[in-house]
Write a structure and sequence with these properties.
By secondary structure, the chain is α+β, with helices and mostly antiparallel strands. Helices cover 35% and strands 27% of the residues. It has an 11-stranded mixed β-sheet, sandwiched between helices. The structure holds one RNA strand.
Length: 491
RNA sequence: CGGGGCGUAGCGCAGUCCGGUUAGCGCACCUGGUUUGGGACCAGGGGGCCGCAGGUUCGAAUCCUGCCGCCCCGACCA
């Protein structure tokens, strides 16, 4: 019927693209690599923002906004930072257009060249630390705990809706502290906030860990991350939190007078999650019939479909439904009563399944007679008929149960797809045949990491924070290792 | 940036090899009617610079040249 999805088993990445488009989350724009986030998709983002923003505020952060454009010279201040981003920057070189003399349209006015080119921010460390230099004189000005919600641009060669786009939306936290210890604690605190959010709102279990040298953020001393597993057995980095040390403070000369009267460079952190989370949300939970959204992020919690033949029937149903929706809205749920007479109930059922609405109610003449209503849950597809009087008290518990069930299912999947291996043969076999997370010993050298990546396409996703001390031998080099690290093929 | 594929109605495609009246199909859209507890049916209707520019020809979606754009697969990345 034009709405059918490619199945996951047939072509996982096509399934993903179909789903994003058919569930009306987003579409490609005319600018390569960019996307239009449609209202249904954007509402998911708004719900994410709401949850995260509250958590940021609760941990003492405030929001601010820094400019989109960064003077080119700023980016060059921190050597590894510029190296990390140089290859994917969009650059503004002119500030004016004019009509072409031959009438063929508009052209860039060559007389309007900028003295210094501006970089469209790929991330904001540089502009922000440039401000911090002015804001910080003394230990009394610290800490600064700022977050910003913004868009950034990274000129990627290959893009995929939500997972990797040239422009994306995110939040970036940038904090400044008087001591290394405090900054390190902040880094871990925000990692925990992310893990909490992803597990409790997105219903997606994550592994918290530290990145290897090769995988860490350009400009950071340490990068921590949360890694989630997608249904196709590939890993997705869901959030990162960086301990910046004094790198940016030194690059932007941000010093402060300590209590003791000496001068010291400020310690920094930065941390972010992006609209990529929406991609992860889709890939982690959804099925061949469409999206499955956790209630805590779903734009619509309950869709109500009336079944009617006549106008009078619809009238009677509407009266009942109004009571129910008012009650549910009072409890804080987003309810949609779909009283369109242009589509049949069956069409609507399929549509709400495609869009991942957690709970669907159906009510028709039969129900009016019996004082009942049909309740269907998206995650398990179970349907049951309940008394209309108790439906509004059942739904909050049902939504909680759905949230929990989605999480449990994802956790079980991850556990099944996490394999401990001790030889390189096993390592390769598991990656090719089973996929998922592979826990293996690693000798800690970048050379081994690179060689494994070269041979298997798998990377070290992280060194898990809860890794047990365990003597072993590196799967690749055979050299001694004290703990297992998490390998996977990744997005 | 290499390799492959594709641009024809809002979407998905056929037609192109072998040039020939008015460019076709499915979905979507509009109108009317019958329907409505799992993606309705019938009838009628609207919608096209056939990616752009040039050339060959009596005649080009179709052949030739150039350009532009997109998708897939690789090297780089949240």
């Amino acid at each position: 019927m034009g709405k059918e999805l490619t199945s996951r088993s047939e072509d996982y990445s096509q399934w993903y693209i179909d789903l994003v488009k058919k569930a009306d989350l987003a579409e490609n724009s005319d600018v390569r690599g960019c996307m239009v986030i449609k209202p249904y998709g954007y509402t998911i983002w708004e719900n994410m923002q709401q949850g995260l923003d509250r958590m940021f505020k609760n941990t003492g952060h405030v929001n601010a906004y820094f400019p989109l454009f960064i003077p080119k010279s700023f980016l060059a201040r921190e050597a590894s930072h510029v190296e990390g981003f140089a290859k994917e920057c969009a650059i503004v070189t002119h500030y004016r257009l004019k009509n072409a003399e031959d009438g063929s349209g508009v052209i860039v006015d060559p007389d309007a060249k900028l003295e210094e080119e501006l970089i469209v921010r790929p991330t904001s460390e540089t502009v922000i630390w440039n401000s911090y230099k002015r804001w910080i004189q003394s230990y009394r000005d610290l800490p600064i705990l700022i977050n910003q919600w913004a868009n950034v641009v990274r000129w990627e060669m290959r893009t995929r809706l939500f997972l990797r786009t040239a422009e994306f939306l995110w939040q970036e936290g940038h904090t400044a502290h008087a001591t290394a210890k405090e900054a390190e604690e902040e880094t871990i605190q925000m990692l925990n906030v992310y893990a909490d959010f992803v597990e409790n709102f997105m219903a997606l279990p994550v592994v918290k860990g530290r990145k290897s040298e090769g995988e860490k953020f350009p400009g950071a001393i340490d990068t921590y991350c949360i890694e989630a597993l997608m249904q196709d057995g590939k890993a997705l980095q869901a959030g990162t939190s960086h301990f910046l040390g004094q790198n940016f403070a030194k690059a932007f000369d941000v010093q402060f007078a300590t209590k003791e009267g000496s001068l010291d460079y400020v310690w920094g952190t930065s941390w972010g999650v992006s609209t990529r989370l929406i991609g992860g949300l889709i890939m982690a939970h959804s099925d061949d019939d469409g999206l499955i959204l956790p209630p805590k992020l779903a734009p619509i919690h309950v869709a109500i479909v009336p079944i009617f033949k006549s106008e009078e029937e619809l009238q009677k149903i509407t009266e009942k439904v109004n009571l129910i929706s008012t009650e549910l809205r009072k409890k804080g749920f987003a309810v949609k009563f779909d009283n369109r007479d242009t589509h049949k109930p069956g069409f609507k059922f399929a549509e709400y399944e495609l869009k991942g609405v957690p709970v669907r109610l159906a009510i028709g003449p039969r129900d009016l007679e019996n004082g009942t209503i049909e309740v269907a849950r998206r995650d398990t597809k179970e349907k049951k008929v309940v008394s209309i009087d108790e439906v509004t008290t059942l739904i909050p518990a049902l939504l909680d149960e759905i949230q929990q069930n989605i999480y449990t299912k994802a956790l079980k999947f991850r556990e099944e797809k996490t394999t401990h291996v001790d030889t390189f043969e096993q390592f390769k076999n598991v990656l090719d045949e089973k996929g998922g997370f592979v826990m293996a010993h690693w000798d800690g050298t970048p050379e081994t990491e690179a060689a494994i990546k070269e041979e298997t396409k798998a990377t070290i996703r992280c060194i898990p924070l809860d890794a047990k001390e365990e003597a072993g031998k590196c799967v690749y080099s055979g050299k001694p290792s004290s703990k297992r690290v998490l390998f996977a093929r990744a997005y």
